[in-house]
Amino acid sequence: IMVDGDVTVSLQQCHFRENHADYGGGIKLHQGTAHVEGCTFSNNHARHEGGAVYVSPTGPLKSLQIRDSCFFYITSDTCTGGIYLGNKVDAYSYVTHSHLAGNQGVGLDYAGRVHFDARENAWHGIGGPGGIGEGDGDLVYGKVDYIPHRDSEF
């Protein structure tokens, strides 16, 4: 799904499975707002970044709100298999109460300068996410607030 224009897209209870794209195997957010709740992303792939979700680093600010969703076994030909967030997400954007597990390379990569809210997620590793985190779960990079995190299912 590509979101482009001054629109708001709400996705609930969707399953994005085995999709392939250059950017954003499940969702590519170029402009606008995307609300994602209760969705599952599995076995998606991107040639570049964001095997599941890609937020463009160019253009106007974008809003991405993900809640109660799952990201499993996502890949890309570069380093960000899971969610790639360019530097153009607004302060209302977040990923929360979601599961990230088994994603290739980086599970969540944020290129922005202000902190991104990724609290209350299960990274499926002991001690939370790896990368900037001290755990051994999916990797997280950038200015991402991931504490508190969840070690178990919720």
Outline the structure in words:
- This protein has 154 residues and is mostly beta strands.
- Helix content is 0%, strand content 43%.
- The chain is built from no helices and 20 strands.
- The chain has strands spanning 2-3, 8-12, 15-17, 20-21, 27-29, 32-37, 40-42, 45-46, 53-55, 62-67, 70-72, 75-76, 83-85, 94-96, 99-101, 106-110, 116-117, 129-131, 137-141, 144-145.
- The strands form five sheets. It has a seven-stranded parallel β-sheet, with no helix packed on it. It has a four-stranded parallel β-sheet with strand order 2-6-10-14, with no helix packed on it. It has a four-stranded parallel β-sheet with strand order 3-7-11-15, with no helix packed on it.
- It is globular, with a radius of gyration of 13 Å.
Give the DSSP E fraction (strand runs of 2 or more residues): 35-45%
Structural class estimated from helices and strands: mainly beta
What are the secondary-structure elements, in order, as H or E? Answer: EEEEEEEEEEEEEEEEEEEE
Low-confidence stretches: none
Q: How many DSSP-defined strands?
A: 20
Mean pLDDT: 92
